[in-house]
TrEMBL record:
GO molecular function terms attached to this record: ATP binding; ATP hydrolysis activity; catalytic activity, acting on DNA; DNA binding; helicase activity
Domain of life assignment: Archaea
Helicase ATP-binding domain: residues covered: 31-207
Chain ranges of the Helicase C-terminal domain: 245-393
Matching InterPro entries: ATP-dep_Helicase, DEAD/DEAH_box_helicase_dom, Helicase_ATP-bd, Helicase_C-like, Lhr-like, Lhr-like_DEAD/DEAH_assoc, Lhr_WH_dom, P-loop_NTPase
Organismal lineage: Archaea, Methanobacteriati, Methanobacteriota, Stenosarchaea group, Halobacteria
Keyword Kinase: no
Family annotation (CDD domains): DEXHc_LHR-like
Organism of derivation: Candidatus Halobonum tyrrellensis G22
Name of the protein described by the UniProt record: ATP dependent helicase, lhr family protein
Keywords: ATP-binding, DNA damage, DNA repair, DNA-binding, Helicase, Hydrolase, Isomerase, Nucleotide-binding
Length: 936
């Protein structure tokens, strides 16, 4: 009651009317300092009244002062949260005679105009809409009255460029309104002091933290396969293991009134949703690639009790109001502690109620990882936010924003305002001036060097309104049901380019669809519904959630604990019982997680742990067993692939997961080579070596294109779109655009400092580095664990037929490498069983991709450079295959991502069924799609 005593009489009267008798823990601790006008960061579990914690003191202040303009801004990262917040705050506004409104991208022009003429007392908005508001004359006047800003889900913004942009936006509001109170809200923050500085510009912040781990209960389980699951597997056209997962989740949903089932990818959401649809279970699907209408429909149906469960991705993580949630299921490891707490925190919204969550796992890595995360969540060991410091594209964006505010700005004053925002506090003035010169070159502003000011130019206005958001502009294709012309969702451009073709099938909204046609001009995919349990799930290119080093290292530590017990003859169940005492799980689940560890010990291999790296290999495949998480392993993999590639003159394929780095290497490279490189690379050179290696990567090219767009630089290089990345990179190297693209890749995907430290630890002997004599159970464990378990491994007859038809209709270049005079482009179906050259009669015919003109030129060149030599060797390997295997080789080589090496491997397999040949091609195409971004 003491907390409520800090509020004014009108608000206390409203509390009585609303039935608030006792403050929750965060309200008890945070309302007094917030009511006192102090900046605050409130960290507390979902459902503990954080919104009221921040807004009751704000309402109290507004009811007393009655500002002429906008008194308070409530900033949320999602439009859907805007709707929820307005509904939640409107009652208080009506009772206190305060106007609460929402403004975002979908707000009508009429409503915007009304808000400008007669500003509400409280405006709920998004970071991007705040950017637009700062440029309007009437709204700038309204913003000059702002006294309070509440930022919801502040952890989500702190980790993104949207958040970095918002911090400068708040400094622009401060330039209008003077100092105002800032309150941040979040359910999970790993580094509260840092996020507090992010929120306030390092001006001091009251941190109120209610430990989320004390209010949650977790169970980690791997379902046992039963006879009923064997029968269910037949009904679902899948294997019994997957059927057991579906059954276990279905049973949890049935046991509760309302359950959210979180998954990590949209593919899994669609695949799992389709299984429940087959079983006619009242369980919907919700993710960001569904249309807004489809999302609202399932939200409303769940809220009304028409659906008992909702399979969802992070789209449901941030507290969209779907009514009461009794239980949360997390399917597969949540990958991060913060994610598990955020998701399970959605369950149990009654005061003081414990949130219950079940993590369903499906393979040993997944299980041990989930156990580590659950233990760390209970202990409150949450990951840091990962603030983007000095992101130069945000500097560019906000410099143009300042010109929209003022028309003309002194450069030093602009630098002062930018560096008042915490992510830019260390931005050197010299670097800021380099950004200004780049913007001037792109005609987004005028630079008056004599007066040391910048001014609006003809391109300022157009650029600013095209770049209100820092979210990258990626093209999406809208998916329409041709029978009803209703939009059912969207597909990523990369999926459409790589996989989609008329006749192919995929799952969306839990239903099967067959592609009728693709309209590239309108960016539309027209589909028809089918009843078929197999097919390709849309492979959206949303980044995989990275497992942090601390979590992966705990998995390594678990292996280290179990190893001596297994070596001493202990049974798996007895070791599992010890783990079940330490972690929130049962003996069966713990035993499943330890299966690979036991087999590894039985085979007599050295155990990869948090203090030991084990290198193994056979043939052209080498695995580095390293329990250091996604980012360190990805960094190690890039470093090794670059240095080994430099040694051998050949490209090296790389794929990384949290526990291993898999390399596909040239002949004569063995585990000893990898050990030599790790022991001989100076840790101080890691950053420079990686920057060199990145110049050849698709990852940097893809990032560079998006950063260049945010600098307004792309229009200078028209024509250098998807196929002009090399030209764009050459043009921008040495500019702030290139520097920012490198910084972003380093920040979001790599862990340079941690990897350098790991190398130093290996070289000092602190971390042991050993070679295994052969492939090991743990080293090969990742090859099966990464697959999409819910997609049938064997494609059915209709899918095989689709692949055959597609390859037969693909074009190939046939090139005679004997006379080098003849080449011919044709469809695969028109190629003879044994192609031969009409000029010289030779059967040494290479089959090449239709865009491989540079290979043809290389083969015909009299004098060749290194690159041309490499292309010529590729053509000769292709011709050897075609000479030996005829049209079968042409078919294999025409598949996506299948070069001569993989084509030879596919052709060499003995098969009873011709369809298996196409299944192997499909498997290789899927593998290429997964690893494409790692290949030079």
């Amino acid at each position: 009651m003491d907390a409520f005593a800090a509020l004014g009489d009108p608000v206390r009267a409203a509390l009585s009317e609303r039935g608030f008798t006792t403050p929750t823990e965060p309200q008890r601790r945070a309302i007094p300092p917030v009511a006192d006008g102090r900046d605050a960061l409130v960290i507390a579990p979902t459902g503990t009244g954080k919104t009221e914690t921040a807004m009751l003191p704000v309402f109290s202040s507004l009811a007393e002062t009655r500002p002429a303009g906008l008194g308070a801004l409530y900033v949320t990262p999602l439009r859907a949260l805007n709707r929820d917040m307005r509904e939640r705050l409107e009652w208080w506004g009506e009772y206190l005679d305060l106007d609460v409104q929402v403004r975002h991208g979908d707000t009508s022009d009429y409503q915007r105009s009304k808000q400008a003429d007669d500003p509400p007392d409280v405006l709920v908005t998004t970071p991007e809409t705040l950017q637009a508001m700062l440029t309007g004359e009437k709204l700038r006047k309204a913003l000059s009255d702002v006294r309070h800003v509440v930022v919801d889900e502040v952890h989500e913004l702190a980790a993104s460029k949207r958040g970095a942009q918002l911090t400068v936006g708040l400094e622009r509001v401060r330039a209008l309104a003077g100092d105002f109170q800032r309150v941040g809200l979040s359910a999970t923050v790993g580094d509260p002091e840092e996020v507090g500085k992010f929120l306030t510009g390092d001006r001091g912040c009251e941190i109120v933290e209610v430990d989320a781990g004390t209010n949650v209960e977790f169970t980690v389980t791997t379902p046992e396969v039963t006879e009923a699951d064997e029968r269910l597997a037949g009904e679902l056209a899948t294997d019994p293991e997957i059927a057991s997962h579906v059954r276990a989740i279905r049973d949890i949903v049935r046991e509760n009134e309302s359950t959210l089932v979180f998954v990590n990818t949209r593919q899994t959401a669609e695949a799992l949703g389709s299984r429940f649809k087959t079983l006619e279970e009242p369980i919907g699907v919700h993710h960001g690639s569904l249309s807004k209408q489809a999302r609202i429909e399932v939200e409303d149906a769940f809220k009304a009790g028409e659906l008992d469960g909702l399979v969802c991705t992070s789209s449901m993580e941030l507290g969209i109001d779907v009514g009461r949630v009794d239980h949360v299921v997390q399917y597969n490891s949540p990958r991060e502690v913060a994610r598990l707490l955020q998701r399970v925190g959605r369950a149990g919204h009654r005061r003081g109620e414990t949130s219950h969550g079940t993590v369903v796992t499906d393979h040993p890595d997944d299980t041990l990882e989930a156990l580590a995360i659950a233990r760390r969540a209970i202990a409150g060991d949450v990951e840091s936010a990962g603030i983007h410091h000095a992101s130069l594209d945000v500097v560019a964006n906000q410099t143009v924003g300042l010109l929209m505010d003022f028309g003309e700005v002194d450069i030093r004053n602009a630098h002062d305002l930018l560096t008042a925002a915490y992510p830019f506090r260390d931005l050197p003035e010299e670097q800021f001036r380099a950004v200004i010169e780049e913007l001037s070159g792109n005609r987004l502003l005028w630079l008056d060097e004599e007066r040391d000011v910048i001014e609006k130019s003809g391109g300022t206005w157009q650029y600013f309104y095209a770049n209100l958001s820092m979210i990258p502009d990626e093209e999406t294709y809208e998916v329409y049901d041709i029978s009803s012309r209703r939009q059912i969702g969207t597909l990523d451009e990369r999926f459409v380019v790589n996989f989609a073709a008329p006749g192919e099938t995929f799952i969306q909204r839990g239903e099967m669809w067959r592609i009728n046609d693709i309209d590239d001009d309108e960016s539309e995919v027209n589909v028809a519904p089918i009843e078929d349990p197999a097919g390709e799930v849309p492979s959206w290119t949303g980044q995989e959630i990275p497992v942090p080093r601390a979590v992966a290292s705990e998995v390594g530590e678990m292996r280290g604990v179990a190893e001596p017990q297994f070596a001493g003859g202990a049974s798996r169940d007895s070791v599992a019982r010890e783990f079940a005492n330490r972690y929130p799980t049962d003996v069966h689940t713990a035993a499943g997680g330890l299966e690979g560890v036991e087999r590894h010990v039985e085979a007599g291999h050295p155990m990869p742990t948090d203090g030991r790296v084990v290198v193994e290999g056979r043939g052209r495949s080498i695995t580095l067993n390293a329990a250091f998480g996604h980012e360190v392993n990805r960094t190690l993999g890039r470093l090794l692939s670059a240095l080994i590639g430099q040694r051998t003159g050949s490209s090296v394929g790389m794929e990384a997961d949290p526990y291993r780095v898999e390399l596909e290497v040239p002949a004569k490279v063995d585990p000893g080579t990898v050990i030599e490189v790790l022991e001989g690379t100076d840790p101080a050179h890691v950053e420079a070596l990686l920057e060199l290696a990145l110049k050849h990567s698709d990852t940097l090219k893809f990032t560079l294109a998006h950063v260049a767009a945010k600098f307004g630089a792309l229009k200078r290089y028209q024509g250098s779109g998807r196929f002009g990345a090399d030209r764009l990179m050459a043009a921008l190297e040495g500019t702030p655009v290139f520097d920012e693209a490198v910084r972003e890749v380093f920040h979001t995907q790599l862990a340079v400092d941690e990897t350098a430290d790991l190398l130093a630890s290996i070289q000092s002997g602190e971390v042991e580095l050993v070679a295994a004599r052969d492939r090991t159970p743990l080293g090969t464990g990742g090859q099966s664990s990464g697959r999409e378990l819910l997609v049938p491994e064997n494609a059915d007859a209709s899918v095989i037929e689709t692949i055959k038809d597609r390859i037969m209709d693909d074009r190939v270049i046939l090139l005679c490498v004997h006379c080098r005079e003849w080449d011919h482009t044709t469809k695969v179906r028109r190629v003879r069983d044994q192609p031969e050259c009409p000029e010289c009669g030779s059967t040494r015919i290479a089959a090449l991709n239709p865009w491989a003109d540079e290979v043809v030129s290389a083969v015909r060149a009299d004098e060749k450079d290194d690159e041309q030599e490499k292309l010529t060797r590729k053509a000769f390997r292709s011709s050897n295959l075609v000479q030996a295997h005829g049209k079968r080789a042409v078919v294999a080589l025409a598949a996506r991502g299948v070069g001569p090496h993989n084509a030879a491997r596919i052709i060499a397999k003995l098969r009873e069924d011709e369809d298996d040949f196409y299944r192997d091609i499909l498997a290789q195409e899927r593998q290429y799609a997964r690893t494409q971004s790692f290949w030079d």
